[in-house]
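Quick one, tokens below. Sequence please?
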């Protein structure tokens, strides 16, 4: 029996990792969990709550991350690829185990729009709603004040995170697949990811994550004009006006 491809999605928070996990898990040959090492819980694939007894709870996970990973890889069933996402700041030991395991396919997911990344994180922190799935009833996203200095520090923090992951992989001679949140509406990009995971293209990959933020950031940023002035002449200035990915729940991806 051929063992499934093992993969991990490395991503900073609010960069579309739940969206990508949901899309991949919609393929019949892939089991893609969400944040298995999330400090708030063991976030399995939305349709695989049955695996909780097999994998164990947070206490079992945190007591033995290596053993937990072994159970994750062994609980793929008949799929051809099994994986999950790992966000910046989660279990350092698990991250190191994954980086030191060359056969595990590494996907680095970024969000090009650094302003929207920070705004999304601030809204999630304010509301406590870090996930938004189809069928959930959530209030409109609130407006928040964005301090320019905090935004710039956040962008630098994420840049340093990706640089550290890349450096670790490069030092051990590993390659990785890079993709962007903004590219996930492109069927060719999804097909490229599926090919790297060793599965066939799929006619439709349903999205399960809903967008909460509106298209125009003026709606969500209380100090928009002040922020635009502070960012003028910086690499972040264009992010304020750059269009975002559409809500894919309304338009399933064909590949």
């Amino acid at each position: 029996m051929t063992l499934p491809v093992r993969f991990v999605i490395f991503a900073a928070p609010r960069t579309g990792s739940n969206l990508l996990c949901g899309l991949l898990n919609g393929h019949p040959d892939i089991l893609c969990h969400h944040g298995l090492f999330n400090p708030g819980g063991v976030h399995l694939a939305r349709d695989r709550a049955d695996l909780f007894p097999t994998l164990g709870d947070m206490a079992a996970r945190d007591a033995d991350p290596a053993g937990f990973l072994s159970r994750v890889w062994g609980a793929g069933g008949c799929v051809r690829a099994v994986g999950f996402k790992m966000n910046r700041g989660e279990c350092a030991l698990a991250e190191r185990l994954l980086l030191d395991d060359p056969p595990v396919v590494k996907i680095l997911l970024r969000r090009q729009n650094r302003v929207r990344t920070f705004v999304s994180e601030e809204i999630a922190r304010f509301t406590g709603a870090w996930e938004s799935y189809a069928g959930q009833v959530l209030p409109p996203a609130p407006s928040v004040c964005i301090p320019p200095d905090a935004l710039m520090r956040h962008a630098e923090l994420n840049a340093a995170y990706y640089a550290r992951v890349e450096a670790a992989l490069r030092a051990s001679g590993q390659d990785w697949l890079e993709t962007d949140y903004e590219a996930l509406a492109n069927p060719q990009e999804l097909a490229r990811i599926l090919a790297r995971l060793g599965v066939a293209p799929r006619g439709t990959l349903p999205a399960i994550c809903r967008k909460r933020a509106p298209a125009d950031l003026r709606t969500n940023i209380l100090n928009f004009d002040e922020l635009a002035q502070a960012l003028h002449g910086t690499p972040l200035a264009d992010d304020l006006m750059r269009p975002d990915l559409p809500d894919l729940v309304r338009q399933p991806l064909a590949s």
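The chain has a mean pLDDT of 90. The domain at 5-238 is CATH 3.40.50 (Rossmann fold).
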